[in-house]
């Protein structure tokens, strides 16, 4: 608390400290955050935001959970490291439990054992219909599941900031269209993040779904997917760490421009970069259905700077009308 520069005071309750809420969007942050001195768990009783010490450090420092963990380990020499846990434990389930307890909810969910990598003589028709080349599918590690809970589904594994997970996509009319593994934390992860985080450049395009992401990659764009239309705080912090100058959000066409400000409101956690919205005007379209030329036209001539002046200008124009 002292190292973070957070003024605090003792609560009447045993082992509790009181401080101002660290969430910049808290409506009344003054002395509403309570943190347990023993467990490090905390909650703001005004806005409801809560977490552990790792989350607290990541919000205050505006960094990722992994970097927050590194900072905490440096501050606390007796804090057990991953390597120490590996030496101490042989059972992977116990190891994972200890990692969760000590390291802040990292997720490890590998692809189903009964899934196989797609290949030329076993290439799913849905990928052919979507014109996803085998070379890209292989690079992304796309698999097909032949039995069990995810039978007949495409498996899209991915890594994000120390987490390992996957999305299971239906190849027929099964419902729901996508399935996440138990314990999935999509609001804390971004599809294709680790691969794109190795790059740097002018712009990266942020889309909703996996096929949107794959489509724009076939067009040559650096792209990641939110796995939904809402930008969480953790996802915004992750994007803030990427070595790109511009972060461009292109959601599906059914998300109108006015909804960008609501569903992507956590873009305020992205600092030192230009944030742009690239809405698709046709409601029935999404990035996966756009041609290369249509995508280029939107990115070159249809973007909106995500700044408050543009939002106010939009509201004023509606009032005048």
Describe this structure in words.
The chain is an alpha+beta fold. It has four domains: 61 residues, DNA Primase, Chain A (Alpha-Beta Complex), CATH 3.90.580; 31 residues, no CATH class; 70 residues, Alpha-Beta Complex (DNA primase DNAg catalytic core, N-terminal domain), CATH 3.90.980; 126 residues, 3-Layer(aba) Sandwich (Dna Topoisomerase Vi A Subunit, Chain: A, domain 2), CATH 3.40.1360.10. The chain contains twelve helices and 15 strands. Strands 1-2-3-4-5 form a five-stranded antiparallel sheet. It has a five-stranded antiparallel sheet with strand order 6-7-8-9-10. The protein has a five-stranded mixed sheet with strand order 12-11-13-14-15. The termini are far apart. About 4% of the residues have low confidence.
Number of strands: 15
User: Helices and strands: which structural class?
Assistant: alpha+beta
Mean pLDDT: 85
CATH architect. name of the largest domain: 3-Layer(aba) Sandwich
Strand proportion, as a percent range, falls in: 15-25%
Q: What kind of oligomer do you see?
A: single chain
The run of helices and strands is EEEEEHHHHEHHEEEEHEHEHEHEHEH
Unreliable stretches? 92-105
If you compute it from the alpha carbons, what radius of gyration comes out, rounded to the nearest whole angstrom?
A: 22 Å
Quick one: biggest sheet? 5 strands, antiparallel
User: How many DSSP helices?
Assistant: 12
CATH secondary-structure class of the largest domain: Alpha Beta
The largest beta-sheet arranges its strands as 1-2-3-4-5
Shape by Cα distribution: globular
How many domains, in number, for the residues? 4
Instruction: Please report the distance between the alpha carbons of the first and last residues.
Output: 51 Å
